[in-house]
Amino acid sequence: MKKILILLLVIFLSACPQKKEEKQEETVVSKVELLPSSFSQIVGWNEDDFAEFIPVFTNNCKRILKLKSEWLGNSEIKIKTESYKQICKEFEKQNLKANDAFKTFIENNFEPYLVTDSGNPEGKFTSYYESRINASFQKNETYKYPVYGKPKDLIEINLQDFDELLPNKKFFGMVSDQKMVPYHDRKTIETQNIGAPVLMWADSLVDIHIMQIQGSAVAYMDNGEKVRVGYAANNGLPFKGIGRILLDNKVLPPEKINMIEIKKWLNENPEEGEKFMQMNRRYIFHKIINESGPLGAFGVPLQAGRCLAVDKSIVPLGSLLWIATNDAEKNQINKLVAAQDVGSAIKGIVRGDYFWGSGDDDVLAKAGSMNSKGIYYIFLPKGNSYEQ
User: What is the three-class DSSP state of 324?
Assistant: First the structure.
């Protein structure tokens, strides 16, 4: 009976709209190709502040040294975990602090490779940030919008747990009449009492929506406290960006599809805005975290300007990258970053989402309008310690 249920579940999942969209994207022929390079070929290599990256590498190593998997991530670019562990052990032994010393350490232990999509190195780079919400632990007339934690009835499954031949993919749902069914959509969650735990109450539904898009926020509490809120889970339904929704419904023209203009319109049109936000059926549940920065998918705090969200089916989380792109104002971004996070819209070989940092609308203006072309390199441990 269990095998029959699993088979029916696989058939259902393969027929759902989200899966169809993924299959349509896969019809485009793409192949990861890594082109050997050298540090002297990397534009800006000698100008970066490598000492600034030391805390990032330290956190990465703490995580990597605990891994028991053979490979650093289940990605197309395969890197032996043991290779990174050896480098991390040497890094801990040397206790590096200075800019030049760490730069030399990277050069001595890694080799750069230009990442290309079937030979094309150019791709798309956007940006995200850790947003801000105003909140209270007590509900009142001002603070009336719940920030939900992970519901007890939300179930996460991986088909590979039942059969190793099935896809290694997570799904979220709930049990109804002894059957696994999709979880509640955004409209249901926001308009009905689903019994999820309430972490706090915010004063703006728009700010909650932006927090969910970005994945995390700093909550400025009415008692003066600052509380960091991070990603806990999602309802498993397809994501559709609010910018695309407003554009499709001819609410805003293309030249005004940036997060500042979107936020302004949503705040000025609360009833219509709520309706359009609910067209994004994906809902993010959060948790309170006690870290120096927002937690990324790799499980370490993110440092402003030093993290890139990637497609982890391509790039292993924890790996080192060099990005060469521009911000929204055409200022060059040439720097060492770590693959530490993922995102619903971050799919593809040459695709990245640059973490700008934490803040209010000033940071949102920078992060929400970045949509640039660029390239990136991946740094692999020296020697034959990986497979392509």
Answer: strand
Query: Which CATH fold would you assign to the domain 42-126+296-387?
Result: Barwin-like endoglucanases (2.40.40)
CA angle 263, 225, 205 (to 5 degrees): 25
User: Residues 67, 70, 72, 73: what is their CA dihedral angle, to the nearest 10 degrees?
Assistant: -100
CB 183 within 8 A of CB 173: yes
- State the amino acid at position 329 in one-letter form: E
SS3 at position 219: strand
Which pTM does this prediction carry?
A: 0.76
User: What pLDDT does 222 receive?
Assistant: 95
Start and end residues for every CATH 2.40.40.10 domain found in the chain: 42-126+296-387
Contact 109, 341 (CB under 8 A): no
Q: What's the CA gap between 205 and 212, in Å, rounded?
A: 11
Q: What are phi and psi of 48, to 5 degrees?
A: -75, 155
- DSSP sequence for 259-274: HHHHHHHHHHSHHHHH
334 near 323, Cβ under 8 Å? yes
**Per-residue model confidence as pLDDT tens digits over 27-63:** 457 899 999 999 999 999 999 999 999 999 999 999 9
CA dihedral 27, 32, 35, 39 (to 10 degrees): 120
- Inter-residue contact 378 to 352 (CB < 8 Å): no
Tokens 């200022």 map to which residue? 331
Residue type, 133: I
Average pLDDT, the chain: 88
Give the Cα separation of 148 and 199 in Å (integer): 6
Distance CA 224, CA 31 (A): 51
